[in-house]
Amino acid sequence: MMKRLEDKVVFITRGNSGQYGTQNIRANAIRSYYIETLLLSAPPEVYLGLMAHLPNDCILPKK
Q1: Is the C-alpha dihedral spanning 19, 20, 24, 26 positive or negative?
Q2: Is the pTM above the cut of 0.85?
Q3: What is the 3-state secondary structure (H, E, C) of 23-38?
Q4: What phi, psi does 10 have (nearest 5°)?
Q5: What confidence tens digit (pLDDT) does each residue in 7-60 have?
Q6: Residue ranges per domain, the chain?
């Protein structure tokens, strides 16, 4: 179970060009969906980049 994240969370997305960048999402459902799917599909360096931007009290699903 994930704790509620802050209203504005930075997470990493992959654009059409294949480059990874950051994007802010405010909606809880959309944010949770993207974080869970990104952690399942992202390479380790992207996962570590995401971890650096999240609040310390967030509980994330295991890869």
Answers
A1: positive
A2: no
A3: EEECCHHHHHHHHHHH
A4: -90, 125
A5: 344 455 554 554 444 444 444 444 555 555 555 555 656 555 555 655 544 444
A6: 9-53
**Closest residue by Cα to residue 49 from 14, 12, 23:** 12
| Strands annotated E in the chain | 9-14, 20-25
CA distance 30 to 7: 12
> Phi, psi at residue 13, to the nearest 5°?
-120, 160
Structure tokens of 43? 């390479």
CA quadruple 29, 14, 9, 25: dihedral positive or negative? negative
> Residue 30 has which token pair?
């959309």
